[in-house]
Structures are given as C-alpha cells and as structure tokens.
C-alpha cells in the first residue's frame, strides 16, 4: 500500500511539473507582448547560472538600421509577413525532401520558430524540439505583432561567444550602434546567424562574403516582403 501511495504521489508531482512547464511559456508569451519587458534567451540564462560573462544591450526596433531588418527577413524567413508563425509550404517541401533522401538537407524554421526556440527551448537538432516549436510559434505569432516579434528576435539572437542581440553585435564587430549599420555590415551579420560561434562577420571568409553578396541583393529587392515591419505591424 505504501509503495502504491508513493507511486501516486510521484505521478501527481510529475503531472504538476509537466503542467507548469507547459503553462510557463504560455504565460510568458502574454507578458512579453509588452514592450516594457526585455526577454532573455535560454542561452543567456545558462551563461548567467554558469557565471559566464555575456553582453546584451536591448535596443528598440526603431533604433535598428532598416537594412538589417530587411536582410534578416530575406535570409531567414522570406514569408515572415504572410505566414501564421509557420511556413507550411516550406515545411511541406522539406518533409518531402526528407522522405525522398532519408533525411532533411535544409531547415524550415521561421523567425517565430527560432524566437520561441531561443526563449523557451534548447539548441541542437531534435524532432521533439521541432514538435514543441510549432504550436509555440503559432501562438506567439498570434499574440505578438510582427514588429514585436522581430524586435525580440533581434535582441536575443546569438552573434558570437557571449554576444547576444544586434546592438551588442554591431558594437563588438564594427564599433557602431545597430542604427548605423551599412548594407554590407547588415548582410555579413545576417549570414553569421546560422553558425555564430564559427563565423566572424568582421573577418569573413570568401565563402561568407559570397553569401553576404546574395543577402545584400535580396535586401535591396525586399519590397512588400518586409512591409509588415516597415509599417509597425
């Protein structure tokens, strides 16, 4: 009898813990809608609790060079202004490719998916994490205006060892505020995002420079692809 009682207590406790873990992101998304709140990422939390120094200087979206915003959208999530948090067409294409080749050769993460991953989940390839990302991304995209989504993303993204957010990255690599980034600097910072611990936008390799050329061209022709952010949507 005592063993059964102990088992029931453990099961109930586990259910409570799981419930709290599910509820916490839901509540935090609501709280983070306020522009007075400056969220931090799970990576920043890890740095803090392991007593590692890191630099993050929050900056409003209005104080980030528009070309930086255009570059990130055109590189990371071209349908940012039109989808509901998940680019279902791209997701379907990636899944079809994965089934055909036995594994995905590219990702389909949108900016909302990357944002909720940075805020609430963990890094690394994981189907479990992807499953959790989808509803969180849709929920966050419904709660936050696109303007706020982009502001949070650019202020929590990792740009190097202990470097978080576009303001810290701009000052570290180019000794200037994010508001004064040039088109070339914006493109180089953007192509650093997929591998921030391996790429150096201040000293780019030939391959990184070619990627930046491509993003620079896309940013010039962004047009309506970035209208939701340009209009404060």
TrEMBL record:
<keyword id="KW-0812">Transmembrane</keyword>
<keyword id="KW-1133">Transmembrane helix</keyword>
<dbReference type="InterPro" id="IPR036950">
    <property type="entry name" value="PBP_transglycosylase"/>
</dbReference>
<keyword id="KW-0961">Cell wall biogenesis/degradation</keyword>
<keyword id="KW-0133">Cell shape</keyword>
<comment type="pathway">
    <text>Cell wall biogenesis; peptidoglycan biosynthesis.</text>
</comment>
<dbReference type="GO" id="GO:0016763">
    <property type="term" value="F:pentosyltransferase activity"/>
</dbReference>
<keyword id="KW-0328">Glycosyltransferase</keyword>
<dbReference type="GO" id="GO:0008955">
    <property type="term" value="F:peptidoglycan glycosyltransferase activity"/>
</dbReference>
<feature type="domain" description="Glycosyl transferase family 51">
    <location>
        <begin position="52"/>
        <end position="212"/>
    </location>
</feature>
<keyword id="KW-0573">Peptidoglycan synthesis</keyword>
<dbReference type="GO" id="GO:0008360">
    <property type="term" value="P:regulation of cell shape"/>
</dbReference>
<feature type="transmembrane region" description="Helical">
    <location>
        <begin position="9"/>
        <end position="32"/>
    </location>
</feature>
<dbReference type="GO" id="GO:0005886">
    <property type="term" value="C:plasma membrane"/>
</dbReference>
<comment type="similarity">
    <text>Belongs to the glycosyltransferase 51 family.</text>
</comment>
<keyword id="KW-0997">Cell inner membrane</keyword>
<dbReference type="InterPro" id="IPR023346">
    <property type="entry name" value="Lysozyme-like_dom_sf"/>
</dbReference>
<keyword id="KW-0808">Transferase</keyword>
<dbReference type="InterPro" id="IPR001264">
    <property type="entry name" value="Glyco_trans_51"/>
</dbReference>
<dbReference type="InterPro" id="IPR011812">
    <property type="entry name" value="Pep_trsgly"/>
</dbReference>
<protein>
    <recommendedName>
        <fullName>Biosynthetic peptidoglycan transglycosylase</fullName>
        <ecNumber>2.4.99.28</ecNumber>
    </recommendedName>
</protein>
<comment type="function">
    <text>Peptidoglycan polymerase that catalyzes glycan chain elongation from lipid-linked precursors.</text>
</comment>
<keyword id="KW-1003">Cell membrane</keyword>
<dbReference type="GO" id="GO:0009252">
    <property type="term" value="P:peptidoglycan biosynthetic process"/>
</dbReference>
<dbReference type="GO" id="GO:0071555">
    <property type="term" value="P:cell wall organization"/>
</dbReference>
<keyword id="KW-0472">Membrane</keyword>
<dbReference type="Pfam" id="PF00912">
    <property type="entry name" value="Transgly"/>
</dbReference>
<dbReference type="GO" id="GO:0009274">
    <property type="term" value="C:peptidoglycan-based cell wall"/>
</dbReference>
């Amino acid at each position: 009898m005592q063993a059964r009682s102990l088992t029931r207590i453990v099961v109930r406790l586990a259910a409570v813990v799981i419930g709290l873990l599910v509820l916490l992101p839901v509540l935090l998304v609501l709280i983070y809608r306020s522009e007075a709140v400056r969220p931090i990422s799970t990576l920043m939390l890890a740095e803090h609790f392991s007593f590692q120094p890191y630099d993050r200087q929050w900056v409003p979206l209005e104080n980030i060079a528009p070309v930086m915003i255009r570059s990130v959208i055109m590189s990371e999530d071209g349908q940012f202004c039109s989808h509901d948090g998940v680019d279902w067409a791209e997701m379907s294409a990636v899944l079809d490719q994965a089934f055909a080749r036995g594994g995905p050769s590219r990702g389909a993460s949108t900016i909302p998916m990357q944002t909720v991953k940075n805020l609430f989940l963990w890094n690394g390839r994981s189907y479990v994490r992807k499953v959790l990302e989808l509803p969180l991304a849709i929920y966050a995209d419904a709660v936050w205006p696109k303007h706020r989504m982009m502001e949070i993303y650019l202020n929590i993204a990792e740009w190097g060892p202990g470097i978080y957010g576009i303001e810290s990255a701009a000052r570290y690599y180019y000794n200037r505020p994010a508001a004064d980034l040039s088109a070339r600097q914006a493109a180089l910072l953007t192509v650093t995002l997929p591998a921030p611990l391996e790429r150096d936008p201040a000293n780019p390799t030939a391959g990184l420079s070619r990627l930046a050329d491509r993003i620079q061209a896309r940013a010039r022709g962004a047009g309506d692809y970035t209208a939701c952010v340009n209009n404060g949507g």
